[in-house]
Amino acid sequence: MAAGTANEFSIKTFTSHLLGGGALASLFQANITEAQGALDTTDFSFLCKAANFPTSSIDVTEVSYMGRPFRVPGNRAAQDWTTTIYNDENFKIRNGLENWMELISSHVSNVRASKMESINSYTGTLNVQQMHKTGGATKKDYVFTQAWPYTLAEITVDWDTNEMQTYDVTWAFSYWTSGESGIKAK
Questions:
Q1: Cα distance between residue 117 and residue 121, in whole Å
Q2: What is the SS3 assignment for 122?
Q3: Is residue 36 a contact partner of residue 89, using CB atoms and an 8 Å limit?
Q4: Is it the case that residue 11 has pLDDT exceeding 90?
Q5: Mean pLDDT across the chain
Q6: Which residues, including other chains, have CB under 8 Å from residue 128's CB and lie 6 or more apart?
Q7: Beta strands 58-65; 48-50: pairing state
Q8: DSSP tally for the chain: helices H, then strands E
Q9: Percent over 90 (pLDDT), the chain
Q10: CATH code of the domain occupying 22-55+67-181
Q11: Of all helices (H) and strands (E), which one includes residue 17?
Q12: How many CB atoms lie under 10 A from the CB of residue 54?
């Protein structure tokens, strides 16, 4: 077998294709750059313990011709973004998220706050960045535009655990961009 072929069983060959030793899942930072309501975003980048890079999908439309279906690309499909947050004893981020959601749709009256009529008045901007092992420049950045929290998950309390509280937030957004992929807002 020729040296350097795809089927060569060699750690050296494998690692030569894994540029920089591979991206580490733990080297990321998530931020809220624009928020609504009483959400103080100062600590979000420190307390956001987990996030994900977004799913990208295009709906498939089936068209039939003489009984045979074939598939063509449809529109871009809407996705969600989920973050996991450490809870501090002041519930600073959680209280802000609850307030943001209350302004979008009140628990008591089921109405939106009067100052939140247009989409930009009740949405914000978030991003997640992949960091380089040596520090410095961000290797990958996703920006979520017109985002808003639509699910604020429960916090479990339990006498049998000493773990720090965490909770998930699921965000809806209109679209994401990533300059490194050539996907920019137009």
A1: 6
A2: helix
A3: no
A4: no
A5: 90
A6: 28, 29, 30, 31, 51, 52, 53, 81, 141, 142
A7: unpaired
A8: 4, 9
A9: 66
A10: 2.30.110
A11: none
A12: 17
Structure tokens that stand for 97 in this block: 């998220």
Residue 139 and residue 54: Cα distance in Å, rounded? 16
What does the pLDDT look like over 118-147, one tens digit per residue?
A: 999 999 999 999 998 887 767 889 999 999
Which strand (E) or helix (H) includes residue 20?
none
What is the phi/psi pair of residue 37, to 5°? Answer: 70, -145
For the chain, give every domain's residue range: 22-55+67-181
Going by DSSP bridges, is the β-strand pair 48-50/80-86 parallel, antiparallel, or unpaired? antiparallel
Residue 110 CA to its chain's centroid (Å): 27
93-103 exposure pattern, b = at least 16 Cβ within 10 A, e = fewer: bbebbbebbeb
| The Cα angle at residue 176 between residues 173 and 181, in degrees rounded to 5 | 170
Are 128 and 50 contacting, i.e. CB atoms less than 8 angstroms apart?
A: no
Residues 34-52 pLDDT 10s: 999 889 999 999 999 999 9
